[in-house]
Fold each of these.
Amino acid sequence: MGQFSVKIYRPSGSVLNANQHRFHPCRTDLICRSQQLIDFQKNIPYFLTRSSSMITSNIKQRIIGKGRGAIFAPADFLDIGSRASVDQALSRLSDQGVIRRLTRGLYDYPKKSPRFGFLSPSTDDIAKAVARKDGQILQPSPSMAANRLGLSTQVPSKPTYMTDGPTRTKKVGRQVIQFRNASSKTLVGAGHKTGVVFQALRYIGKDRVDSQIVDQLARTLDDKDRMLLAKQSRHVPAWMHPIVQQIVAHA
C-alpha cells in the first residue's frame, strides 16, 4: 500500500505531523487548555480549604499577638481576607474557644483568672472597640474624665461617652454603655490625654479650678502632651485658656 501522512492543523495555522504530535501532545493548544481547566476544577475545593485555613491562622496569630484582653471587630482584619472569609474565621475561632463573641460583630481574646476563669472586658475597652468598629470619635464624659484623673471620687452609674455618632445605648453582656452625640468642641483632644483634661475641666467648672487642681492635671501630662494641650486649646471655650497656660507652664 502506498504511504500516507496525517497532518494536524493548529489554531496558529502551522502544520504538525502526526508522529510529532504523538511525542508532543501539549502542542495541541485546545487539548492542553481543556485538560488544565479540568485539573483546576478538580482542585478548587483544595484551594478554597487551604485559603480559608490560612486566613484563620493569620487572624489567630494577630489576635494572640495583641495579648489577652484585646477586643476587635471583623473590620480589623480586612487586610487579611474578604469580609465573608473574616467572618467565617472569627466564627470558627469562637467555636474553638480561642476567642469570645461579646455581641454582634464584636469579639475579645479574654483575660483569664486562675480563680474566676474568663474575665469580662473593661467598659473603656468595649467603648473604644465599638467606636473603632463604627468609625467614630470617642471622648469620656466630663464626670468619667474627672474620676479617671483623680479629681472626683464619684463613679458614674452608667458609663457615658461623647461621640460624633448618634446618641444610643449599647449593651454588651451585663454592661450598659451610653454614647451621646456631641459637638466638635466637646471632642477636642479625643483619643489623647489632652481630651481627658479638657473634659475634666468641664466637670470642675471655671470657678472651682485652683492651683492644686492645676498641679494635679499637669502631673498627668508629659512635655509632649503639654505642647499638644496648648495647640488644641485654641478650639476650647475661652475660659479654659488661662488654665491651660498654667498647666503648660508647670515645671
Amino acid sequence: MATLEKIPWLRWVDRVLNVLCALIGCVVVYLLLSVFCFCTFKIPSESMMPGLLPGDQVVVNKMVLGPRLFNLRQAAKRRRVPVYRLPGFGEVRRNDVLVFHDPYPYGSVNRIRMDRRNAAIYRELIEWEQQGSLRVDSAGVVFLDDKLLEGYRFGHDYYFMAGDNAPASHDSRFWGLLPGEFIVGKVWLTFLL
C-alpha cells in the first residue's frame, strides 16, 4: 500500500491541495469581511481637502450603521434597487466622515430646495415624501392635506452631506438630502499606497 512518504509526487499533490484550500479560505474570509465589516475606497476628488487628499485610501467600517444588502445584478444594470440594512453597532454623528454612493448618478435628481428656515426644509421634505400639501394656519397648527399633523416620522433617515472643501464639493447643496440607504459606512482609517 502506497503512502505519501513513499511516493514523492503524492506529497506534492497534497501540498498543492493544502495551499489551494488555504487560498480559497482566505478569499472567502476576505469576501465576507468586505461585504459585512470593512472595505476600502479611494478618495476621487478634492472635496474633502485638507483632511483627505485625492488618491488617499480609506478603510470604511460598515458595522457602524450595519452592512447593506441589495441585488448586485440589478444594480449593475443601472436600475434602482431596494437596499436592506442589517443592524449596526452605532449611529452617524455630526462631523463623521462617511462614504456614500451617489444617489443620483444618472441625472434624475429629486431636488429638495434648501433655504435659511428649518420650517421650509421640513415642509418640502414632508411634501416630497408624502406627495401631499403641508400648510400652517395663523395659529401655527400644521396640516397635511387638511388633516391635523401633530408629529411626523420620516420614512427614511436623511442626511445633509457636505465636503470640507466647499468650492470643490458637489454635495447636498446641489442634489438635496441623502437617504440613509446610500451610506456605505464611516471612515475608520486612512492610508496611502
Amino acid sequence: MSAEPDAARRDPTRLDPTRLWAAISPLRRTLLATTLAEEELPDLPEAQIEVIRALPRGTVASPSELAAALGLSRPSVSNLLAAMERTGLAARRPHERDGRQVDVVASERALAYFERFDAANAALVDGLAAELTPGEVAAIDRALPALERLRDLLVAHRRTGGTPVAGARSAASAAPATSAASAASVEEPA
C-alpha cells in the first residue's frame, strides 16, 4: 500500500486554510521586516503603515473612515492614531466645517517613510521575482485577483458580524485581472 501525497488527495475546489495561513502570514511578516531593515526604517507596525497608505499626501480622513477602510474597530484605530501621534507620524485636527469631528492627516515624516518603504518594497519584490521562474511569476499574478476577492469577502464577513454576504463580489473579481499591479491592503487587527 503506497501513501498518496497530500496534494493528490486534496480536493482542488477547496482551499487548505492551514496552508494558506502558513504561506501568507510569514510572507507578510518577512516582507515587512526585510523591507524595513534594508531601508533602515524604524520598526513600524504593519497597521501603522496601512494607516499611512490610506492617507496619501493631501488626503484627510476621519477616524471612522479609516476604521472602515482598514477593517478595524474604531477603538483600535483610536489607539493606533494615539501611538502614531506620539511618534509624530499622524495628527488629528478639528474638521474644518464640524468642530465635533476630527480629521486625520499623515505627517510629512510619515509620508517620507512610506515613500521610502514603498520604493524599497517594490525593489525587493522585483529582485526576488527575478529568482522565480516565469511560470511562478505568472501563477502569483493569476492568484492575486482571487486573493483580493478572498480579502474582500473577509472584510465583508467581519463587518456583518459573520453573517454571509450574499452575492458579495468585488470589482476586482467581476472582471478578469490582467496585471499584478493592483495594490492590496491587508487587514491587520491592532
Amino acid sequence: MTYQNGATLPESTTDVDDENHTQEVRQWTIKNLDIDVVEKSRMAAKKRGMKIGAWVAASLKRAAELELYSDPSPGNNSLSADIEEIVNRIEEIRREDIAFRQNIQSDLLQLVKGQHGILTEMLSRNHPMEANVARNTGDDYRVGAVKGRTQFQHDNGDWQKRDERTGHFMERKSSEGPFKGVAKEPDGRDTKNS
C-alpha cells in the first residue's frame, strides 16, 4: 500500500538560519511512500514537537550529509548503527506503551471498584430497611428470622424445614439441634397456618 498524497513544503520562500544567513526554501513533493513510513514520520515529528515538514527536512538533511560525507569503506557501519538505534528506540517506545496501557487498565479497575463501593453505600443509605434483612453473619449465628419457613422435629430427633406457603417439605437436618433462625411449628410466629 502506498501513500499517494504528496508531502509538501510551502512555495519558495526565504528562511533565516541560526547564523542570520538566508537560505531559500523550495516546495518538494514525495510520492509513493509506504503508509507505514508516513505514519512513523508523523509520530516521530510529534514526539520532537516539530511540524512534519520541518522534521522530514531535518531527517533528509542528516541522511544526505551522512551519505555524502561519511567514510564509504566497508568497516564504517554508522548507517547500520543508526538504524539499530532507531529500531531499539521503537522497541523501547512499544514497551513503554504496553506499560502505560496496563497502568490505565489497573487505574480503571480501581476506579470501578471504588465506584461500586460508593454506590453500595448510597443504596444502603437510601434503603435503610434493606440493610437490616435477615442474614448469616459468618460467625455461626444468624441475624433475623428466615421468612416463609417453619421447622418441626421428627420422632427420631431430626429437624425438617417446611415451606410455609405451599406446605412442601424441604431439607432435613441430621445433626443435633434445630435450624437456626427458622420458626418452630406450631408457634404462630410467621402466619396463622404455621
